[in-house]
Amino acid sequence: MTTLEARDLAYRRDGQQILAGVSVAVHPGERLAVTGPSGSGKTSLLTLLAGLHSPSTGEVYIDGTRLTGVAGPRQGVALVLQGYGLVSLLTAAENIEVALRAAGWAPPRAAAAAREALSQVGLDAHADQLVEELSGGQQQRAAVARALALKPKLLIADEPTAELDPASRTLALARLFEVATGGGALVLATHDPEVAERCDRVLDLRPG
After folding, report:
1. CA distance 186 to 37
2. What is the tens place of the pLDDT at every residue in 6-26?
3. Cβ neighbours of residue 103 closer than 8 Å, sequence gap 6 or more
4. What is the DSSP code string of the chain?
5. Residue 71: its pLDDT value, please?
């Protein structure tokens, strides 16, 4: 199981103070919501926690090991980014297969797991469609499916339901929360008070 800890993080970009003095820990089985108005640094914080950027000061630890440099997400960590991070000229299933094979999965197993993950978010009928042919909401669900397929111990999601209709939102949230139910840790940024209320704890950020 994975414990995530941030200690006194600060982050500056283009001469602007984005974050200062942020400390938080997320343990196995916990769901943490990161809230705050636009410009408060939610996305920046999630990229620091995932190891995509380095803080100006402060440290991030995963299972007691300090993240150093910018080396991308660690093994056992999955991300759902606001831009989705999908390859537009691959199908929904292929996007997931590529991620699984990069994580060491054999091709037949990766192919089966990709379709199962898409089915879990209601996209089984769209598995063979190119990403560029999918709607914004469908792309968002495909990104969620890709993260879930990796069976992460830590899942970090940035506004993972912002583009979804009510039925799809309910389905995607159920699958995301299952990460914590299964003993993993979930961190998600959200503007939705209902989503925040369903989490175990809330970290509310203010600009600067």
Report:
1. 21
2. 999 999 998 899 999 999 999
3. 75, 150
4. ---EEEEEEEEEETTEEEEEEEEEEE-TT-EEEEE--TTSSHHHHHHHHHTSS--SEEEEEETTEEP-S---PPTTEEEE-TTTT--TTSBHHHHHHHHHHHTT--HHHHHHHHHHHHHHTT-GGGTTSBGGGS-HHHHHHHHHHHHHHT--SEEEEESTTTT--HHHHHHHHHHHHHHHHTT-EEEEE-S-HHHHHTSSEEEE----
5. 58
Per DSSP bridges, beta strands 31-35 and 185-189 are parallel
Collect the ranges in the chain with pLDDT lower than 50: none
Quick one: CATH architecture of 1-71+182-208?
3-Layer(aba) Sandwich (3.40)
Closest CA to 86 of 75, 71, 97: 97
Instruction: Indicate the pairing of strand 4-13 with strand 31-35.
Output: unpaired
**Contact assessment for residue 29 and residue 185, using Cβ atoms and an 8 Å cutoff:** yes
- Predicted local confidence at residue 75, as pLDDT: 75
Type of residue found at 5: E
Using CA of residue 83, residue 87, residue 88, residue 90, what is the dihedral sign? negative
Question: Would you state the structure tokens that stand for residue 47, as one six-digit string?
Answer: 């990229």
Question: Does the predicted model carry a pTM greater than 0.85?
Answer: yes
Look at residue 82 in the predicted model and tell me its pLDDT. Answer: 87
Give the percent of the chain with pLDDT over 90: 82
